[in-house]
Amino acid sequence: MDLLDFARGPALQVAAYIFVAGIIWRLVGIIMLKKRSQGFSEWVDRMSLKLPIVGGILEQAAIARFCRTLAITFAAGVGLMLRSYRDEREAAAKADKNPEA
Length: 101
Description:
Strand content: under 5%
Structural class: mainly alpha
């Protein structure tokens, strides 16, 4: 039995399993750290946006999500501009039925 034959056999399989288990363990650790640390989460998000292909896809997905939400809001009849403080007081007075507000 040659050393090369041994490396192709069960030892290589064990090494591959350990390698895959290590990658999974690191990914789980990163996900847990991202959930617990605001700073790390922001860093991971910044770095993911800088990735060559994935960054553009993530950016376009965020823009599409924003546009879809804005369209739903407009379709529901909610305006984009906020009303002034005076308008809010008048609306609150009408709802309270207190004309002196």
